[in-house]
Amino acid sequence: MLDQLLASMQAVALPLKSKFRGITVREVALFEGPAGWGEFAPFLEYDDIESSTWLLSAIDAATNPTPMAHRGFIKVNATLPAINNVKEIEELLQSFAGCDTVKVKVGENLGEDIVRVARVRALLPKAKIRLDVNGGWSVDQALINLYEIYEEVGPLEYVEQPCATLEELRLLKEKLVIEFKITGDEVIRKAKDPFAIDLQGAIDVLMLKVAPLGGITRAREIGAHHKLPMVVSSALDSAVGIGYGLQLAASLPTLDYASGLATGQLLSADIATVALENGEIAVRSVSPDADLLAKYAVPVERLIWWKERATRAFYAGAENEIKARGWKW
């Protein structure tokens, strides 16, 4: 299997409209299998073991049929990076036309966070607002910051990963005197075994991201295991990865929250079109455009780097999982 995926692997560098997660270009590797295209794109700082689930997801996409869909369109949220320029915020939110939910990145500077969230509220007074902290606050910081933001903008739909650990999240929920729904992301996808952790009393909503959780098959299993309300989001994927996230969202029996699958709007170029209309995206598998693959292709030495990284990730964990599940190329 490894030989086949390496033989068809291509890699692209896609520019972003604004800095996001500290980067201005998103690199992704892609390969084609018997069931379609897979996307392998762990962030550059991730080690081989963490990257192995991302490779497992790509292999799942390329080798297995998609599950039955319960819906043909997925409602999505807008995503606002940690920017405070008024014009940038306005232009970016306009690109998410029709979305009635906005996820705002916060956590580095409370004063700037409040200004950013307040601008979203002023521009979209009826929108639901959710915050994404990426585990950056201590319990005491979370208590102070959430109350401050609440005083400025009112109720929030939920707060994603305000603190890093399950123990901190439980303590935060015990100390809150105003109800804030807590969503878990990193605490699940970075767990050594996401099936073994106890999420009760720590989070209210389970975030499923296809790539870091090892693919649509495994993400569905994790969601069913924990029996919590779920929200589906992306990991700054290209259009190919977004297509897989849409298929996961479509396959869930219930979907109570807008999905974070419109992050293609953060890119200034992509390898295929995923149309956002009236705050929704149609569910379909996505294949990259050959001309766009060529246009945004990384240099040869960079493609070699991605192939070497995929090889290490394969032997770091993906191979054993593939054998256990009996997946075939």
Structural write-up:
The mean pLDDT is 96. Strand 10, helix 8 (216-226) and strand 11 form a beta-alpha-beta unit. The protein is an alpha/beta fold and 329 residues long. The longest helix is centred in the last third of the chain and has 26 residues, at 300-325. It folds into 2 domains: 2-15 and 28-65 and 290-325, Enolase-like, N-terminal domain (Enolase-like, domain 1), CATH 3.30.390.10; 73-282, Alpha-Beta Barrel (TIM Barrel). The protein is globular. It is 40% helix and 19% strand. It has a 7-stranded parallel beta sheet with strand order 5-6-7-8-9-10-11.
Share in β-strands: 15-25%
Major beta sheet, strand line-up:
5-6-7-8-9-10-11
Morphology call: globular
- Structural category is alpha/beta
Overall residue-averaged pLDDT value = 96
CATH topology title of the largest domain: TIM Barrel
The biggest beta sheet is recorded as:
7 strands, parallel
Radius of gyration: 19 Å
Topology at a glance:
Elements: H1 2-8, E1 10-20, E2 23-33, E3 36-40, H2 48-63, E4 73-75, E5 78-80, H3 86-95, E6 101-105, H4 110-123, E7 128-132, H5 139-153, E8 158-160, H6 166-175, E9 182-184, H7 186-189, E10 205-209, H8 216-226, E11 230-233, H9 239-251, E12 276-277, E13 280-282, H10 290-295, H11 300-325
Parallel strand pairs: 5-6, 6-7, 7-8, 8-9, 9-10, 10-11
Antiparallel strand pairs: 1-2, 2-3, 4-13, 12-13
Helix pairs in contact: 2-11, 3-4, 4-5, 5-6
Give the gist of this structure.
This protein is an alpha/beta fold and 329 residues long. The chain has helices at residues 2-8, 48-63, 86-95, 110-123, 139-153, 166-175, 186-189, 216-226, 239-251, 290-295, 300-325, and strands at residues 10-20, 23-33, 36-40, 73-75, 78-80, 101-105, 128-132, 158-160, 182-184, 205-209, 230-233, 276-277, 280-282.
